[in-house]
Amino acid sequence: MRSFASDNNSGVHPRIMDAIIKANDNQALGYGDDPWTASAETKIKEVFGDLASPFIVFNGTGANSVALQAVTRPFNSILCASTAHINVDECGAPARMTGCAFVAIPTLDGKLTPELIRPHLINFGVCHHSQPKAVYISQVSELGTVYTLDEVKAIADLLHEHDMYLHMDGARLANACAYLNCSMKAATVDAGVDILSFGGTKNGMMMGESVVSFRPEISVNLQYFRKQSAQLASKLRYLSAQFISYLENDLWLENAKKANKAALKLASVLNQYPQIHFTQKIESNQLFFTIPPEQLEKLQEKYFFYMWNEKINEARLVTSWDTTDADIDDMAQTLSEIFPA
Questions:
Q1: At what angle do helices 35-48 and 237-247 cross, to 10 degrees?
Q2: Which segments within 47-188 are labelled E, that is strand?
Q3: In this predicted model, what pLDDT tens digit does every residue of 125-184 receive, in sequence order?
Q4: Are 62 and 209 in contact (CB under 8 A)?
Q5: Cβ-based neighbours of 82, under 8 Å, separated by 6 or more
Q6: Percent of the chain predicted with pLDDT > 70
Q7: In DSSP terms, which residues pair with 138 in a beta bridge?
Q8: In the prediction, which pLDDT does 341 show?
Q9: How many other CB atoms are found less than 10 A from the CB of residue 255?
Q10: Backbone torsions φ then ψ of 94, nearest 5 degrees
Q11: How many whole angstroms separate alpha carbon 231 and alpha carbon 236?
Q12: What is the pLDDT of residue 2?
């Protein structure tokens, strides 16, 4: 079934699938003591720099939970946008595993700013209140928008003034870098990010993420948080092998550019209909828009996709590395049939 529901629905890139098959070679030591994991960690360090300490995990929820445990204690609070993945879509896992209070901050575009964060940096040293310690941002945001490098740095600088940490959820980091035309290092550690959930599942990998710490005091206990969180794979080589192919020859960037380009092409199709209104800037591979109820119902008969705000008939479409011109042409034909001439 072809759809624009999510980039989680896309297949595995052939080069990555081939890497998994090649890793299925004889026996190898478990729990990361294998050559594939060593090679993957080296590749990640080459991409993010010498400060990077990678810890490969199963999935995005696990990565976020492990990363946030590493930078907080249960008496701390974690600040995030109200639309943040950790606040809306992870069944409370990061809150449960950190024990921290979550402070959800409303935004118009899914992005936090120093101005939105600053009023919540209060009650330091007061035992009656949770102590602010970390801010979580998504790059790309949950509304498809992208932080500029300066916007990330401004948040990081503010937090560091208060002895706090910046955690970036990079589930779609590749798409952000493709839009910004920058390296992943520039978008993270160079911009002041302290710890990263580095994802590839939405961009051609089968599964697996990596928690990447850029601070020695964070890295020291990450191996224990990973194990306690049930995120250390015994046959880690199959996860690790994917990162080798993903990072070699900039496959990550090639895939992200394809997805972003497909989103712009799909947007040009939707733009032909005055009844469709985009609700967010198109800066990645996600489209948010409103559509009249009658046409929405007909579109749902043909495609599966997620509603973002049912009260206003706001829907989300997502392209991926394997979205084809035929997929978009099919959507164009469908729209031409459901909208009156």
A1: 40
A2: 53-57, 76-81, 101-105, 131-138, 165-170
A3: 999 999 999 999 999 999 999 999 999 999 999 999 999 999 999 999 999 999 999 999
A4: yes
A5: 88, 104, 105, 106, 107
A6: 100
A7: 169
A8: 75
A9: 27
A10: -60, -35
A11: 10
A12: 86
Question: What average pLDDT does the segment 192-201 reach?
Answer: 97
Span 88-115, average pLDDT: 97
3 state SS for 27-70: CCCCCCCCHHHHHHHHHHHHHHCCCCEEEEECCHHHHHHHHHHH
β-bridge partners, 132 = 77
C-alpha radius of gyration, the chain, whole number: 20
Token pair, residue 252, equals 């990550």
User: How many whole angstroms separate alpha carbon 167 and alpha carbon 192?
Assistant: 10
Extract the runs of DSSP E, i.e. beta strands, from 178-301. 195-199, 209-213, 277-278, 286-290
pLDDT at 340: 84
pLDDT, mean over the chain? 97
Does 92 have pLDDT greater than 90? yes
Phi/psi at 81 (nearest 5 deg)?
-70, 150
What are the distances in angstroms from CA 282 to CA 47, 48, 61, 165, 318?
27, 27, 25, 29, 11
The amino acid that residue 250 corresponds to is D
Tokens representing 338 are 């459901």
**Would you say residue 1 has pLDDT above 90?**
no
User: Which pLDDT value is given to residue 189?
Assistant: 98
Residue 287 backbone dihedrals phi, psi, to 5 degrees: -120, 130
Contact 219, 195 (CB under 8 A): no
Res. 236: pLDDT tops 90: yes
- Alpha-carbon distance 158 to 165, whole Å? 10
Domains in the chain, please, with CATH?
15-250 (3.40.640.10), 251-334 (3.90.1150.10)
Neighbour count for residue 89 (Cβ, 10 Å): 12
Q: Give Cα separations from 92 to 27, 56, 61, 64, 128 (angstroms).
A: 38, 22, 10, 11, 23
What pLDDT does residue 225 have?
98
For 216-240, what is the mean pLDDT? 97
- What does the alpha-carbon distance between residue 287 and residue 278 come to, in Å, rounded to a whole number? 7
| DSSP-assigned letter for residue 130 | P
Q: Residue 210, exposed/middle/buried by CB under 10 A (0-12, 13-18, 19+)?
A: buried
